[in-house]
Amino acid sequence: MTINKYQGKTKEEAIEKAKKELGPGAVVLNVKEIKPKGMFKMMKSITYEVTAAMEEKEAFAASPAKPNAAVARDGINLAADEEIPFSGLTGGGGPMIAAPQRAGSMKTEKSNEGLEKRLENLSNILEKQLSADSAKPEKPVEPQQPANSEGLQFVKMLYRTLLENEVNEKYVNQIMDEAEKILRSGSSVDYILSNVYQKMILKFGQPSVIDLNGKKPKIVFFIGPTGVGKTTTIAKIASRYKVEKEKKVAFLTADTYRIAATEQLRVYANILDAPMNIIYSAEELNAAVERAADCDLIFVDTAGFSHRSSSQCDDMKKLIQGLDEGYEKEVYLVVSATTKYRDLLEIADIYKEIADYKLIFTKLDETTTYGNILNLRLYSGAKLAYMTTGQNVPDDLEEFDTQKIVKQLLGGRAN
Question: How far apart are CA 287 and CA 389, in angstroms?
Fold first, then answer.
């Protein structure tokens, strides 16, 4: 894995420098605001420092691990239900993970406080690791050392924290396998945390949002099951592009099953002073797109349906694939963060038959565990794009914040 730092007048400029050197697959690990210092600091502007990484793709094992299975390698046992006596990991902040009500629970709370403290200071941890890495020879040869006690307890705590956040155990095992290798080298707790954090950031990848490059208009389809908030999500994204980026947008809806959804979209269209049409077929889709050819973006709302309905699935496929090949399109699968893991996997498989898609997660404000986001990302291979945290248009929408989600998965404080 290659890790470097890049500075720019804006966050976007620093990220662009990283991608220019590391390639478009570069992943941002951390963003740091650097305030000017010295006598003339009032005359200097704030700069941004981005820590970015690049690593080859990793393959994930297809066979799921059994629930609460123990991971035992060379005497290190990471059983999910093992009693863990934590010690020496105290710090500021409050416990984010409910500790089991049994002997040792007070120590567990203190260790969670220590983890949260370290996550809050992650920028400094990364800084120390970069400095340590740059001081090492290119190919260091490190003898195998017995796992230190504090590091072992810390790895076990991370293991349990990820499970409590409902990350699938097969993925937790893969992440902990990385941590174990670092642990056996005799590295510090901060070094272990930093590497686990980096690996998880890389597994999530950079958010992939609507691309305005290429031909106009760009046709953007939103698909997904009923009740996940597709129409509201469309309004949020359209508002951002219309108001903040000053792009010309239009709306189409193929959701003829729910009158309320059509009327809701019409209200948003009127507020944004954007054209809106109802379509029933691929032919009507192409005709409507041609009429709105002067727009930058055309947002297409589709009917939500049960992923078990093969006829509705076929209709959706015909609609999306029926778009004239002269137009560029993007497809976003909208799913709720509150949906059960097994259902998410089934939804991902069924909608993959309709089109290749990117992922939008809604209702993050309605759950306290985000493990399914990582689970679906790794299972489907689809890129993450946006996430929503409420009903307010357009405020409760943001590009997928990988750093924030990873920190919360590791036991950090929700903002």
Answer: 35
Query: What H or E segment, with its residue span, contains residue 76?
Result: strand 76-77
Residue written as token pair 């309320």: 260
- Cis preceding linkage at 394, omega within 30: yes
φ, ψ (nearest 5 deg) of residue 31:
-120, 125
- CA separation for the pair 245, 261 (Å, rounded): 26
Calpha distance 381→61 (Å, rounded): 13
**Does residue 320 sit in helix, strand or coil?**
helix
Which residue in the block uniquely carries the two structure tokens 């690593």?
55
SS3 call for 63: coil
Q: How many CB atoms lie within 10 A of CB 150?
A: 15
DSSP string for residues in 163-224: HHTT--HHHHHHHHHHHHHHHHTT--HHHHHHHHHHHHHHHH---------SSSSEEEEEE-
- pLDDT tens by residue, the chain, 415 residues: 666 778 888 877 888 887 788 777 777 767 777 777 655 555 567 888 877 767 655 444 444 444 444 444 444 445 444 443 333 333 333 333 333 344 444 455 555 666 777 776 676 666 666 666 555 555 454 444 445 677 788 888 889 999 999 999 999 998 988 788 888 777 778 888 888 898 899 999 989 999 888 888 999 999 999 889 899 999 999 999 998 899 999 999 988 766 677 888 899 999 999 999 999 899 999 999 999 999 999 999 998 776 666 778 888 899 999 999 999 999 999 999 999 999 999 999 999 999 999 999 999 999 989 999 999 999 999 999 999 998 888 788 999 999 999 999 998 765 5
Strands 27-34 and 249-253: unpaired
What does the alpha-carbon distance between residue 230 and residue 192 come to, in Å, rounded to a whole number?
39
For 202: left if phi > 0, alpha if psi spans -120 to 50, otherwise beta; the answer is: alpha
Q: What share of the chain is helix, strand, coil (3-state, %, to 5)?
A: 40, 15, 40
**Amino acid found at 54:** M
CB 323 within 8 A of CB 219: yes
38, 253, 269, 273, 282 from 250: Cα distances, Å = 50, 10, 8, 9, 17
Chain-centroid distance of CA 194 in Å reads 18
Could you tell me the pTM of the whole model? 0.74
Q: Report CA Rg, the chain.
A: 24
Q: Cα separation of 384 and 373, whole Å?
A: 9
The domain 218-399 having CATH identifier 3.40.50.300: the answer here is yes
